[in-house]
Amino acid sequence: MIAATASFSEQLLPPWRRAVLKVGSSLLAANGGGLSTEYAEAIAGFVNAAHAAGREVVVVSSGAVAAGRAILREQLVPGAEMAERQALAALGQARLTGFWQGLLERPVAQVLLTHDDLRNRRRYLNARATLAALLRHRAVPVINENDTVSVDELKLGDNDNLAAIVAALVDADLLFIASDVDGLYDADPRTHANARPVEVVAQLSAELLSVAGGSGSAVGTGGMRTKLEAAQRASAAGVATVLFNGTRADVLAGLAHDRLRGTRIHALRSRIAVRKHWLQNAPAEPGGIFIDAGAAHALVEKGASLLAGGVVAAEGDFRRGDMVEVLLRDERGPRRIARGVSQYSAADVRRVAGRHSRDIEAVLGYNYGGNIIHRDDLMLV
User: Fold this and answer.
1) Is the N or C terminus of the chain more exposed, i.e. has fewer CB atoms within 10 Å?
2) 141 and 103, same structural domain?
3) Does residue 154 lie in a domain region?
4) How far is Cα 80 from Cα 78, in angstroms, rounded to an integer?
5) Whether residues 320 and 250 fall in one domain
6) Are residues 39 and 187 in the same domain?
7) Are residues 313 and 333 in the same domain?
8) pLDDT of residue 362
9) 323-330 and 333-341: which strand pairing?
10) Pairing of strands 323-330, 288-291
11) 340, burial (CB in 10 Å: exposed 0-12, middle 13-18, buried 19+)
């Protein structure tokens, strides 16, 4: 590699409480072999320091295929069948989870996702609820794609985009993407000795995307372009992105003290603004949830979630995860009070209407929490 003549200066990170950290195969499988602590120890040190400071980190980790390859001690030939890659992922996934557990001070939870889990609204809510519960229990979710059953997802740089989706899923403040280069340059530093660092990006342009190269690693599946595409996705969801060199222990030590040597890509809008826009404009299903005056007062005046006890009826045939209208029916007729994402189907809402939240499981045989609509998923109209 041709070294760039200019280095990144130090800048302060924006305030953050929760972040997603994406770590690629090139940082975990050094020299094309099995899993290695060469770079992972410093990365884990950053995560542990963040936890010690009261923050939360969700890790999106590649490396299962590389770990499986080391178990079999076989190299994939170019054009190897998808089933071979999936078999290696299945072999390596347990080892990858154990690898992280050996480095992190909190319990590690393996979470395998596909894009279908995140495109389908009901499965999206289930994944969101599971991750929220893990974070409440002070665990570290280590997320990877479910490569053993996903065919289309084993593509170039897919975990970069998965990390951006997860950042929106868990309402992260920042997306950290660890790479084997210092950050974004205005030209490819592998071939241009005069490439200059791009330290702050207010908005990604077509020009910046065009100078991003492909994968520079024998074991990785993504290059700088996919990282920028992920940053673009995160930015649209209200999440800023940080690109940094995960091979440098000094850079990771600086991150633990909110000092960055790398590239920071701004979010286009705040997460709150993005969320409000979606809640306001997503189409609602026919029908709705009717509430009593006490529930309407709690929603409007106290900023409360909608509980089953305040529900008097449900109309329509909406399902869990659908956008529904919340209405107050009184002497003036039905009036829209709010709209939001229902945690329960219309049939379930009818069964628990007027009940205490603690009775939901006894009535239904299961529960998705005590809220019919959580405050974070609700907007007053």
Assistant:
1) N
2) yes
3) yes
4) 6
5) no
6) yes
7) yes
8) 97
9) antiparallel
10) parallel
11) buried
Q: pLDDT (tens digit, 9 = 90+) per residue, 240-271? A: 999 999 999 999 999 999 999 999 999 988 88
CATH number at residue 373: 2.30.130.10
Please list the ranges in the chain whose pLDDT falls under 50.
Answer: 1-2, 4, 153-157, 215-222
**Distance (Å, rounded) from C-alpha 16 to C-alpha 173?**
5
- pLDDT for res 208: 76
Same domain, 161 and 308: no
174-179 β-sheet, strand order: 108-113, 140-145, 56-61, 18-23, 174-179, 240-245, 262-265, 200-201
C-alpha distances out from residue 87 to 13, 32, 76, 159, 212, Å: 40, 18, 11, 18, 31
The answer to whether the Cα torsion of 46, 51, 56, 61 is positive or negative is positive
Residue 24 sits in a domain of what CATH number?
A: 3.40.1160.10
Please answer whether residues 360 and 349 qualify as being in contact, where contact means their C-beta atoms are separated by less than 8 angstroms. Answer: no
Listed as own residue / partner, the contacts of 114-119 with beta carbons closer than 8 Å and 24 or more positions apart are 114/145, 114/146, 114/149, 114/150, 114/153, 115/150, 115/152, 115/153, 115/162, 115/165, 118/165, 118/169
Q: Which residue has the tokens 């120890």?
A: 41
Q: Residue 369: which region, alpha, beta or left (left: phi > 0; alpha: psi -120 to 50)?
A: left
**DSSP β-ladder status, 11-12 and 378-380:** unpaired
- 312, 244: one domain: no
